[in-house]
Design a protein that fits this description.
single chain, 196 residues
């Protein structure tokens, strides 16, 4: 019995010892790669990085991840981790240089960002209008509104839709306009809810 217990304890202690000896670079590298990927995403979202720059950095990060996997699987020594960590440092410095350097396409980025903001804002408001339209259709179909009431609510929703399309056409919606449109939609939702 003691021999069996001893045979079970030795492998467990060996695994624990190996985990303790595993270089801290492994965990540090994982954290750095994860943070770097988040930074790339934030740079793209803020407009500091173009989509092409983002794709290039992500491709280099993927190569770095593959190297990391090889080092991790073969239980590399601390000396073998040093070149990998230098490459990771170089990749982070490259991202710093790209995000700080004024780009030749700054105006294009601004235009792309405006278009993207316009699409996102339009989508959010449109989603609310679509949901409200479905709800209105359900109420009308269920017979909870008279024909005149249904037309009145539909007319209000059409006016809101027209205002949104006019404002989004040339520029992104400002915070004040967004609040105003949301108030109109809230009011219409409240009116329809009272019928339910």
């Amino acid at each position: 019995m003691k021999k069996i217990l001893l045979l079970l304890i030795i492998p467990v202690f060996t695994v624990v010892l190996i985990q303790c000896v595993t270089p801290p670079q492994r965990w540090r590298a994982e954290d750095r790669m994860f943070a770097f990927q988040q930074r790339i995403g934030n740079g793209l979202a803020s407009g500091e990085l173009t989509s092409i720059e983002t794709q290039n950095l992500l491709a280099k990060l993927e190569i770095t991840r593959n190297d990391y996997t090889v080092l991790r699987e073969r239980r590399a020594t601390q000396e073998e981790w040093k070149p990998f960590l230098r490459r990771l440092d170089d990749l982070e410095r490259e991202a710093d240089r790209i995000s700080v350097q004024p780009s030749r396409v700054d105006e294009k980025r601004v235009d792309e960002k405006r278009i993207e903001e316009k699409k996102i804002e339009k989508k959010r408001i449109e989603d609310r209008m679509i949901a409200l339209q479905r709800r209105l259709n359900e109420v009308i179909t269920a017979g909870r509104l008279t024909g005149d009431q249904g037309r009145e609510y539909q007319l209000k929703l059409d006016v809101i839709r027209k205002v949104v399309l006019q404002r989004v056409k040339d520029r992104p919606i400002t915070q004040g306009e967004r609040t105003e449109i949301s108030c109109y939609l809230d009011s219409l939702e409240k009116d329809i809810s009272t019928v339910l």
